[in-house]
Amino acid sequence: MDIHKEVAKLKEQTHVLARLKTKGFLDEAKYIEQTTELTAKINKLQAELKKLTRSDDEDETLDQIDMLIDFFEKRENPMTEFEETAFESIVEKIVVIDQHELEFHLIGGLKFKENV
Fold it and tell me: Could you tell me the pTM of the whole model?
């Protein structure tokens, strides 16, 4: 949240510089120097934010894969029949490739194709 606030603050400073330049209080060279510096800071913060977000997504993916492993390893008996609740909790979506092929998208980002 602090990163978002800092980015907003830097963007506001960029707008202030633009207004000062428009009103003639700031020359072109100083305006370019200041906005370049602010833009670099904004880009650095946004890259950091993206890295943090990606890390959260990766953690969620790993948790989902762990859940899949636990589901199949902790079963007392192997699955021999279709179990609707298990299917619904594991399969995110099914994509029809063509008449004879389906692609199953599982939790954790796993995918596999099946001929029908």
Answer: 0.48
